[in-house]
Design a protein that fits this description.
Helices cover about 40% and strands about 15% of the residues. By secondary structure, it is an alpha/beta fold.
Length: about 270
């Protein structure tokens, strides 16, 4: 098990241990809690989620890693969150890709570009069993996507086919969606969408092939149709590349009666990123 995940589990065990009751009452609640936290911090000080340097609190990046992580700030495309040059104008602006490709969703954001530490964090979450990263990532996504999380939307992850889920053991997008919902207090439905067929990897495919590969591959789960109707859905994924996966998910939601779909990714593959 990676050291980050092992430490997170150890801290969780100690958190559980501190709430042990004795004689039916909580023992010296605030004093015990403060003492336990000091012990936990001394034995298992929180580490940077990227490099293992000691940091001030759990789920944080150290100064150098924060500086080297390509967080998206400033002017962005209102549909996909890709960073754009220039100052913020009065209305929304769109990147070249979003001007060329019709997007079935209304707004989109991403926390970082997919490069350097952005790529490293995404790959850790996806393939490295660093499921503890989801909590930190949800914080960054909540900040980047604050404007999208208005109007009490339902948080819905991009689904994995069961075959991929079996191989990977978890859906990283569902981890992000759950962590985002926990952080914001919004409702989450991890199994609202289903993959009807195995679409394989999108890697190495051109934009047209990516869209063709995903067309009609996703649907609203039959038992979840009522949840998807007449409300705003925020789709969550770890990476947005061409937008083909988000488009297939958004179209499935809209076909099932969803009022509006927005999209939020941890990382955006950007031409400059
Ligand atoms: Zn670091
Ligand atoms: Zn765009």
């Amino acid at each position: 098990m990676p050291s980050g995940a092992r430490r997170a589990r150890a801290r969780a065990r100690l958190r559980a241990a501190r709430s042990v009751r004795r004689g039916g009452g909580m023992i010296g609640l605030s004093g015990v809690r403060a003492g336990a936290q000091a012990v936990i911090a001394a034995i298992y000080p929180p580490h940077c989620v990227n490099c293992n340097a000691i940091v001030g609190h759990e789920g944080a990046l150290c100064g150098p890693c924060w500086r080297d992580t390509p967080f998206i700030t400033g002017l962005v495309c209102d549909l996909c969150g890709t960073p754009l040059p220039g100052e913020a104008p009065k209305g929304p602006v769109h990147c070249d890709d979003c001007l060329k490709i019709a997007r079935p969703w209304t707004r989109g954001r991403a926390a970082m570009t997919y490069g350097g530490n952005g790529r490293r964090l995404v790959l850790g979450l996806k393939h490295g069993d660093r499921t503890d990263l989801a909590r930190a990532a949800a914080g960054w996504m909540a900040t980047a996507g604050a404007a999208l999380l208005q109007d009490d939307p339902l948080i819905v992850p991009v689904p994995l086919h069961w075959r991929r889920l079996f191989q990977r053991r978890y859906n990283q997008s569902a981890l992000l969606a759950r962590a985002l919902a926990a952080r914001t207090g919004l409702a989450c439905c991890p199994d609202l969408l289903q993959r009807r067929r195995f679409t394989g990897s999108q890697d190495g495919k051109g934009i047209e092939a990516r869209f063709a590969n995903l067309a009609s591959a996703i649907r609203v789960a039959p038992g979840r149709a009522a949840l998807s109707r007449c409300r705003v859905i925020v789709l969550v994924d770890d990476v947005m590349t061409s937008g083909a996966t988000f488009a297939a998910c958004a179209e499935a939601c809209l076909a099932a009666g969803t009022a509006e779909v927005r999209v939020l990714a941890l990382a955006r593959v950007s031409k400059d990123g």
